[in-house]
Design a protein that fits this description.
Layout (H helix, E strand, L loop, with lengths): L29 E7 L2 E7 L7 H17 L7 H20 L16 H16 L5 H16 L8 H8 L17 H31 L3 H4 L4 H8 L7 H4 L12 H4 L15 H10 L5 H14 L5 H5 L6 E3 L3 E8 L4 E8 L17 H11 L1 H6 L9 E5 L5 E5 L9 H7 L17 H15 L3 H5 L5 H7 L4 H22 L6 E3 L1 H5 L4 H6 L4 H8 L9 E2 L27 E4 L3 H17 L2 H21 L4 H11 L7 H7 L2
Helix pairs in contact: 1-2, 1-4, 2-4, 3-4, 4-5, 6-8, 6-12, 12-14, 12-17, 24-25, 24-26
C-alpha cells in the first residue's frame, strides 16, 4: 500500500492552451503539425497547385490561424481537406461558366462565391451519396474558415458574409445507431480472446526458452533456431539482407529446424515462404504484434464498461498504478477534455475463477498479463513510447521496431481479428456485422444494465448523462427486451387483478344443504362464519354471494365493495348458489340485448369479460339452465340492477 506522499499526483482536467499566436506565412505551402500517440504528422495545403491560387491561399491562411487559435488536437484535418476539395471544384467549375478561376477570391466581386459554394454542395451530394455526412462536414468547415477570414478580409461581399453565417444546405446523415452484441456473441468473443491470450503466452514462453540457449549467430551459426531468436533481440541483425547470404534461396532446402518456424498447414505444407515471413515468425516468439494485442483489447473493453476504446488505447505506463486492492487508471477522454481516475478492484481472495490456465481475467489481472507479455519489447526497444499497447512489427526497411498499436490496417482491425478466430470445432465465429469495436463498449454497458436494473439514471453510471445514455445506449436490443419484460410484468399484474382467474365458485344444491359442515366449508374455501352468513342471505349482493365485501380486489382500502353487482362475475370472492342461476340467466340475456345497442368495441370493453365468465358458469351447470328459464317464465322474474350500473354500463 503506498505510504502518505508516495501516491502519484493525479492529473487534473484542464482547458487546452492555445498555440503561440503568430502570423502564418503568406507565400508557399501552408502546413500545420500535430502529434497523436507519439507520432508527429503534418497537414498541408499548397495554393500553387490550383488555378484559383489566391482563393486557396486566403482559405489556407484562415485554416492555419483557426487551427492555432482553437488549439485543434488534430491540426484541423477536416478544414484542410475542405480547402483542398473546394479549390479543386473551383478550378473545374468556373471555366464551364466562362470565368477564370484566378479571379476567385474572398474579397473579390467578379466571382459570386456564394453561388459557387451552393454548386459545390450539390457536387458533394452527388459524389458522396445520401448516406454520408461528408457534405455537411466539408461545407461546415469551409463556412467556418470564411467566417474566420471576415476579420482580415474587410472587403468581403455581403452575400458571402451572409452565406458564411448560415448552416450547410444538407444536414448530417443520421444512420442507424450501433446495436450491442448479443449475449451469445459476447461469450464467443470472450472465449476466443481468452484462447488467443493463452496461445500468445504459450508462444512467448517457448520463444523465451529458446532465447536462454541462443548466442550470437555470427559465432554460433545461423541454422540454430535459438540463435535466430537471439538475433531478433538485435533488430538490425535480423533483416532480409543479413539472412539471404546464410540460407539457400530455395526454402525447401533450409534446415528442418528453421523450416519448422514457418507457418504450415495440417499436412505440413508451408503456407508462407521467404525471409520476410521468417523474420515475422521469429519476432512473434518474443514480442506481441498488433493482432495479439487485439485479444487483450477485447477482454479489457468487455470488463470496463466505463472506458471507451479511445481512453483504453491512449493508456501509458505512468497512467497505471497497482495497489494492494487492485489497479488505478488515469484515463483521458479527448472529446470531453476530461481526465479521471478509476479504481478496478482485485477479486476477493479465495473467490472461484472460471478460467483454465494461469493468471486472472479481471481488469487488474489482464493488465498484469499484458505488461508481462510486452516486458521484453520494452527492454529491446527502450526508445519506444511508454504505451500500454506496444506492438512490434516489421516496419521501415524490414527492420523490427516497436510503437503503439494503431489497429488501423485492414487486416489488423477488430473485424480482421474476428475473421481470424475459430471455435473449438474449427469454424469461424458467427458474429453479426458491423465489426465495430464500439459495440463492445455498448455490450459491457448492457451487461451492467442487466446486472443492476433500476432506473435510467442508475444505468447511465458516473460517466454519462441520462440523456446520453438514452440516445446512445438505451436503444439497444437488450434494453428493449428488458423494457418489454418490465411492461409485460406490469400488464400481467394488472390482468391478474382484473382477470377471471379468480372466477366465482359454483356451489351445487347438495353442497348447499351441507354448507355449514367443516369438510364442505373447507373445500369451498370458506370459514364457518361466512358459510352461516351465506345460508342466511347476509352476504347476498343482489346477483351472487360474496365471501367478504370488505376485501374487494377492485380497491386498495378496506371499505365495502363499490362495484357490486356490476363486477361480481369477475371477482374471486363471488360464490354462486344454484338458487341464483335464474338471476345469472337474466343477466346473460341483458348482456346479449346490449350487444345490439352498443358498438362491438364498446360492448367488448363493458360486457365481454362478464359474458365469458357467465359462459364458464353455465358450462358447469348446463342441466340447470332450462329449469331456470322455466322458473323465470312461470314466476315472471325480472332482473333488478342498480340505476348507477345501468347508467354506467348500458350506454
Amino acid at each position: 500500500m503506498p505510504r502518505r506522499g508516495e501516491r502519484k499526483v493525479r492529473e487534473r482536467s484542464t482547458v487546452p492552451e492555445a498555440m503561440p499566436r503568430q502570423e502564418p506565412e503568406r507565400i508557399g505551402i501552408r502546413r500545420v503539425a500535430w502529434t497523436r500517440r507519439g507520432v508527429k504528422c503534418f497537414h498541408t495545403v499548397d495554393p500553387a497547385k490550383y488555378r484559383c491560387s489566391t482563393l486557396a491561399a486566403q482559405l489556407a491562411d484562415a485554416w492555419v490561424t483557426y487551427a492555432r487559435a482553437m488549439a485543434r488536437a488534430d491540426g484541423g484535418a477536416d478544414l484542410a481537406q475542405a480547402v483542398r476539395d473546394f479549390a479543386r471544384f473551383v478550378d473545374k467549375h468556373l471555366p464551364a461558366l466562362g470565368l477564370d478561376p484566378a479571379d476567385a477570391r474572398l474579397d473579390g466581386h467578379i466571382v459570386d462565391l456564394a453561388e459557387v459554394i451552393h454548386a459545390w454542395e450539390e457536387d458533394l451530394r452527388q459524389r458522396h451519396g445520401l448516406r454520408s455526412s461528408a457534405p455537411y462536414v466539408k461545407t461546415g468547415g469551409l463556412l467556418t474558415l470564411i467566417e474566420q477570414a471576415v476579420v482580415s478580409e474587410t472587403d468581403m461581399p455581403q452575400a458571402l458574409r451572409l452565406r458564411a453565417q448560415a448552416p450547410p444546405a444538407y444536414p448530417p446523415y443520421r444512420g442507424e445507431p450501433l446495436d450491442e452484441f448479443s449475449n451469445a456473441e459476447r461469450l464467443a468473443l470472450r472465449d476466443a480472446a481468452r484462447d488467443a491470450v493463452r496461445a500468445l503466452e504459450a508462444r512467448l514462453t517457448r520463444g523465451r526458452e529458446l532465447l536462454k540457449h541462443g548466442v550470437d549467430p555470427r559465432m554460433g551459426g545461423w541454422h540454430d533456431p535459438a540463435n535466430l531468436v537471439w538475433a531478433a533481440t538485435r533488430p538490425y541483425l535480423l533483416t532480409v539482407e543479413v539472412l539471404k547470404p546464410q540460407f539457400p534461396q530455395n526454402v525447401l532446402s533450409w534446415p528442418e529446424p528453421v523450416k519448422a518456424l514457418l507457418p504450415a498447414g495440417p499436412d505440413s505444407t508451408l503456407l508462407k515462404r521467404g525471409f520476410r515471413y521468417l523474420v515475422t515468425e521469429l519476432s512473434a516468439l518474443l514480442f506481441p504484434a498488433e493482432m495479439d494485442l487485439q485479444a487483450f483489447r477485447v477482454l479489457l473493453l468487455l470488463g470496463m464498461s466505463d472506458t471507451s476504446p479511445e481512453e483504453l488505447h491512449d493508456l501509458t505506463l505512468p497512467d497505471i498504478e497497482f495497489t494492494d486492492g487492485g489497479v488505478r487508471l488515469v484515463q483521458r477522454k479527448g472529446r470531453a477534455h476530461r481526465v479521471r481516475a478509476d479504481l478496478h478492484l482485485d477479486p476477493a481472495e479465495g473467490a472461484a475463477t472460471d478460467f483454465a490456465g494461469d493468471g486472472a481475467w479481471d481488469v487488474p489481472g489482464l493488465l498484469r498479463r499484458l505488461l508481462a507479455a510486452t516486458e521484453l519489447s520494452r527492454k529491446v526497444f527502450p526508445d519506444a513510447g511508454p504505451w500500454l499497447f506496444l506492438a512490434v512489427e516489421r516496419r521501415h526497411r524490414g527492420v523490427l521496431d516497436a510503437e503503439v498499436a494503431h489497429f488501423k490496417n485492414r487486416d489488423r482491425r477488430f473485424g480482421g481479428w474476428i475473421a481470424a478466430q475459430r471455435t473449438a470445432g474449427g469454424k469461424p465465429l458467427e458474429i453479426t456485422r458491423p465489426f465495430e469495436i464500439r459495440r463492445l463498449r455498448k455490450t459491457a454497458k448492457v451487461v451492467r444494465a442487466v446486472a443492476l436494473g433500476g432506473t435510467v439514471s442508475d444505468l447511465a453510471g458516473d460517466d454519462h448523462h441520462v440523456e446520453v445514455y438514452r440516445m446512445h445506449y438505451a436503444h439497444g436490443t437488450t434494453a428493449h427486451i428488458l423494457a418489454g419484460r418490465a411492461i409485460n410484468r406490469a400488464q400481467k399484474w394488472v390482468f391478474e387483478r382484473t382477470s377471471t382467474s379468480g372466477h366465482p365458485v359454483l356451489v351445487t344444491e347438495e353442497a348447499e344443504q351441507h354448507l355449514e359442515e367443516p369438510d364442505v366449508t373447507a373445500d369451498l374455501g370458506l370459514d364457518a362464519g361466512q358459510a352461516k352468513a351465506m345460508r342466511s342471505g347476509e352476504l347476498d349482493m343482489g346477483l351472487v354471494n360474496c365471501r367478504n365485501p370488505y376485501d374487494s380486489p377492485h380497491r386498495k382500502d378496506t371499505k365495502v365493495c363499490h362495484v357490486a353487482p356490476a363486477m361480481c362475475m369477475l371477482c374471486r370472492n363471488a360464490v354462486v348458489f344454484t338458487s341464483q342461476i335464474p338471476r345469472l340467466v337474466l343477466l346473460s340475456d341483458h348482456i346479449e340485448r346490449m350487444r345490439t345497442t352498443l358498438t362491438p368495441p364498446h360492448w367488448q370493453a363493458q360486457w365481454g369479460r362478464q359474458a365469458a365468465a357467465l359462459a364458464e358458469v353455465f358450462d358447469e351447470c348446463a342441466d340447470l339452465v332450462p329449469t331456470a328459464r322455466r322458473e323465470i317464465a312461470d314466476l315472471g322474474l325480472r332482473l333488478d340492477l342498480p340505476l348507477g350500473m345501468r347508467t354506467e354500463f348500458d350506454r
